[in-house]
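Work Package 3 (structural annotation) set out to generate three-dimensional models for the target panel prioritized at the project kickoff. During this period the team completed the workflow that converts sequence records into discrete structure tokens, so that structures can be stored uniformly alongside our sequence database. As a representative example, we reproduce one entry of 136 residues exactly as it appears in the project archive.
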Amino acid sequence: MSTLIAGTGVASASSPADKAVAACGSSYYVQRQQSMGLGQNVTVFLLYSASTRNNCVVTVKHENAGAYYGTATGLGAGIQAEGGSWKKDDGDYKYYAGPVYLSAAGQCVRFWGHYEEIGASSIRDWYHTSTFGNCG
């Protein structure tokens, strides 16, 4: 089982998906995901827990992201139930944004991710907004 290292925001798990599960909680499993960035160095995950009946979104930097990993850059995670308002966590983070939780029984949800990629001569913002799905 994955755990977070206290006070660091770094998951001891090896894969980005394991880190997303560690951030949300051990009862969560990945439903959908989308990679972002030139090197696909960041992934936004939509997770769900049958025991809590909550959805969870986390945007995770990959360890192979080089200088971006461990450096605070723009990173965001969000979720919206159909007909509802967005719940987002968007700021400067070293390892991951979120977790953002939403109980949406009987509704479809969509997830959102943001990644600010800082290059030698430019800054590029990547965004992903999924379609509505995972209805239930």
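Residues 28 and 49 are 4 Å apart (CA to CA).
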